[in-house]
Write a structure and sequence with these properties.
Layout lengths: L8 H13 L23 E3 L5 E5 L7 E14 L5 E9 L8 H5 L7 E7 L3 E8 L15 E3 L23 E7 L4 E6 L4 H6 L3 E7 L2 H4 L22 E2 L9 E2 L1 E10 L1 H8 L13 E4 L38 E3 L4 E8 L6 E4 L5 E6 L2 E2 L11 E3 L1 E4 L3 E8 L6 E7 L6 E2 L2 E2 L4 E6 L1
Parallel strand pairs: 3-6, 5-10, 13-16, 15-26
Antiparallel strand pairs: 1-2, 3-4, 6-8, 7-9, 9-10, 11-12, 13-14, 16-22, 17-21, 17-23, 18-19, 18-20, 18-22, 23-26, 24-25
């Protein structure tokens, strides 16, 4: 057997402890209108007896419904200097049948959490299943999903444990969102928020503007390609329903700023008192990676045990999101920036390509009457914890080559004691 097939005795013992702690009546139950086989994917056609799709339309299918299934659990992530760190996190179980979700979600936490990309005007059903902590079977922490900055119609779906439902181990809950506002948001677990967010339970989330699909014929704005409506020369989409095309873009990239305090993570897996008062991020990252891993377009290498070389995640890809930005000269790049760091206000610099700030905290910058954009150009933007900013990089007149986007504070340009790393990525203009 190779390292991805081997299951150690400690792994089996911990798995048995986790499963033994799950109530005997626990059953994963996702809710997704139009889903016929329990995999959280709406099915447009009915199934034949052999399980294959037929040509008979599914009467419950609604094209305006989007669904996703996440699990909450634990795992490991590899820092840019190869140090493995224990994490909490979410796993994208969309496409996994309900009866296999518990097994699939064990030790599969992703850092950052799987990106949630949804469309304005649709209804979003998000199921969260708590699979427990394999490496900390002494913990029975509940989890939630908090759609940060979004105006939920009902507090029960907001994820705050004081006013909503927290999901215990072995249980599932489906959140419902009516996507009435576009913009760059973010999400995280709100249970014991300081601990769970430091441990990695946070991710990118954005709602694509309706104008990207429908266009705005009254103002000569052709529909983009996001909804399959192609028009000659049309941009890929619009950051907001601007009515004048001022937030048009050709390529988009979500970039979430964050960091880990390695002492906090190592104390956690070693079942030691957690140093909340001394929390200090020693591994600044973008989308869960430090430079040069940020520019790796493919999957990250697996976190390995430094003593045995064993794959700590059982082959699960713990860091799937690259931060490499690529575009063709002349294109407009939309950067969806967010900061869910619980200890630091970050400033991001683009010294060579000016940034046009078009939105802050999921709101386009416009006059109160909506007639005049208040966008502005800068070479740096600052984001406190819980803030988002939408910026457009116009590459017209920019020579092909490699440019940089990085933290203004030089101490965040390191991977702990390794210099020339941390919160930095590249913009490659072809």
């Amino acid at each position: 057997m190779n390292s991805t097939q081997r299951i150690s005795i400690p792994f089996l013992m911990a798995l048995l402890l986790v499963l033994a702690a799950v109530p005997a009546t626990a059953q994963v139950s996702s809710q997704c209108p139009g889903d016929l086989n329990g995999d959280s994917i709406p099915d447009p056609f009915l199934f034949r007896n052999n399980g294959t799709p037929s040509n008979q339309p599914n009467p419950d299918y609604d094209p305006n419904v989007q669904c996703m299934h996440l699990t909450g659990g634990d795992g490991f992530a590899a820092m840019a200097d190869d140090r493995p760190l224990y994490t909490f996190g979410f796993f994208d179980a969309t496409g996994v049948p309900d009866d296999q979700v518990m097994t699939a979600g064990i030790l599969a936490a992703a850092w950052p959490a799987p990106a949630i990309v949804v469309d304005e005007g649709k209804q979003f059903y998000l199921t969260l299943t708590n699979v427990g902590m394999l490496k900390r079977p002494d913990l029975f922490d509940p989890h939630t999903v908090h759609f940060h900055g979004f105006p939920n119609a009902a507090s029960v779906f907001d994820g705050l444990p004081e006013s909503a439902i927290a999901i215990n181990m072995g249980a599932s809950l489906t959140y419902y969102y009516n996507l009435v506002e576009p913009g760059t948001f973010m999400y995280h677990c709100h249970v014991e928020a300081t601990e769970h967010m430091q441990m990695g339970m946070l991710g990118n989330l954005y709602v694509r503007a309706r104008q990207s699909f429908d266009g705005d014929p009254a103002h000569g704005i052709a529909p983009g390609t996001l909804g399959g409506n192609t028009a000659p020369g049309a941009p890929m989409g619009y950051a907001y329903n601007d009515g004048d095309g001022s937030t048009a873009y050709d390529v988009e990239y979500p970039l979430q700023l964050g960091g880990f305090d390695h002492v906090f993570h190592e104390d956690h897996v070693n079942v030691q008192p957690l140093p909340f008062a001394m929390m200090r991020d020693t591994y600044p990252m973008i989308n869960g990676r430090g430079y040069p891993d940020t520019i790796n377009a493919g999957p990250m290498h697996q976190p390995l045990d430094p003593d045995t070389g064993e794959d700590l995640n059982g082959a699960a890809n713990s860091q799937p999101e690259s931060s490499l930005i690529t575009a063709t000269a002349g294109q407009k790049i939309l950067l969806r920036l967010s900061n869910l760091n619980i200890t630091v206000i970050h400033t991001l610099i683009s010294p060579s390509i000016p940034m046009e700030v078009v939105g802050i905290d999921s709101r386009e910058l416009r006059t109160e009457d909506g007639l005049t954009p208040l966008h502005y150009q800068t070479n740096s933007v600052s984001l406190g914890g819980g803030m988002s900013t939408d910026v457009i990089l116009d590459t017209s007149g920019i020579a092909p080559g490699t440019y940089y986007l990085y933290a203004a504070n030089l101490n965040y340009l390191s991977n702990y004691q390794e210099d020339f790393g941390g919160m930095m990525t590249e913009i490659v203009i072809n």
